[in-house]
Each structure stands twice: as C-alpha cells, then as structure tokens.
Amino acid sequence: MSTVITEQQLLAMETRYRAALINSLGGFKSVVLLGTANAAGQTNLAIFSSFFHLGANPALCGIIIRPDVAPRHTLNNILETKSYTINHINEGIYRQAHQTSARYGGDESEFVQTGLTPFYVPGIHAPFVQQSHIQLACEFVQRADITLNGTILIIGKIVYIHLPENAIGTDGFIDIEKAGTVTCSGLDSYHTTKRLSRLSYAKPGVLPRDI
I need a labelling partner for 22 at 20 to 30 A (CA). Which of 44, 67, 149, 188 fits? Predict the structure, then answer.
C-alpha cells in the first residue's frame, strides 16, 4: 500500500497537519541553537532546523527565519548587533533545546527558562551554550527577504569555531557523531545517527572506496 497526495489535497489540509507533513518530507536536518543578545545584553536562545552550509571561502552559512505573528527576538538581535552563535545539540540537552521554541517574552531569557548556561568569548557579543559540544560564532553579512512566503534568509560569516579536539580529522573532516551531535526530522522528532561510510572523491569511471 502507498499514499498519494495531490496539491489540491495539500491545500485542503488542516494547517498544523500540513505543516507537520511538509516539514518532515525533507528528511533529516541540522538542528541547532542560535544564541543572541540585544545591545543591552538581554540574551535569547532559539532552536532552528534550517541551518545550512553556503560556502567555505569565505566561510558562510545560512539560516531561514520563518514569518510569525510573534516578535522575532533572534532576528532583531542579529540585525541590531550583527553577532550570533550556532550551537550543536546533543543527547544531553535536546529536551531543553526543544523548549526554547516556546514563546517567551522579550524580557525572558531562554537560557534561564531552560537551565542552559550562557558563556562568552572575548570580542564576540553573542552568548554560546556551554553544554553544546560544537559551537561557532557568526558575523551577520546579508539579509534576503523571500517574498514568496515571507521567510527571511540570514547569511553569516563564520568567525570562530570551538569543538572537541578528537572530533576533527587530519583532513579537516569534523566527526559530528564523535561530538554527540543529534539531528531532527519534522518539527519535533530528534535522532542520533550511525554512519554507513565515508567515501572517496567521486571521479568518472572509478568506483568510490571507503576512506
């Protein structure tokens, strides 16, 4: 048995059901915590599953911020201070990370509300999550408004990386499984992973080999 869903059926679906369906359709995604603070130092922490790589030279990454009727504290803080952090989520903190999606007020810190610990690096305005095993700091470089659905693409330049020494290989590959990073599917499903293999660089006429 299989299921077929047409565009007309999608349009007729209840809003939350359709959101769950479409969000899980893309498979496993990076899930991270964005740490920010406004100019006065009020901290904010928010979970995002739209973090992606944009380029290595310069080192760029992107994140999609969706439209919302509630105030977007993360976006406001990024635009105000040009500074934010990306913090990988692990098994020890995924429940607290999920809780940051609750709609706290602008004067409430998700760090306080969830029990996660902020820490700072000299020269970087935004807070990191101490319990995260892989952390990076970004400098805001570009905003792109996607008029089709009101979402916003934020592009950042990576200016700082902190990770366990044993998680980075001699070829620069970061073993996120060693660091305990988890992934997600849909809006609320969290997963650990098991690598099948790393494969050699693909060339015409040459079968890939395990490396």
Answer: 44
Strand order from edge to edge, sheet including 183-185: 29-30, 183-185, 189-191
In 4-114, DSSP assigns E strands to 29-30, 32-37, 43-48, 52-56, 59-65, 83-88
Q: Can you tell me the distance from the alpha carbon of 163 to that of 179, in angstroms, rounded to the nearest whole number? A: 8
Question: In CATH, which of 2.30.110.10, 2.40.110.10, 3.30.565.10, 2.60.120.200 is domain 26-191?
Answer: 2.30.110.10
- Could you tell me the two tokens for 86? 């990306």
The b/e string for 12-27 (b: 16+ C-beta within 10 A; e otherwise) is eeeeeeeebeebbeee
DSSP class of residue 5 equals: -
What does the pLDDT look like over 93-139, one tens digit per residue?
Answer: 999 999 999 999 888 999 999 999 999 999 999 999 999 999 999 99
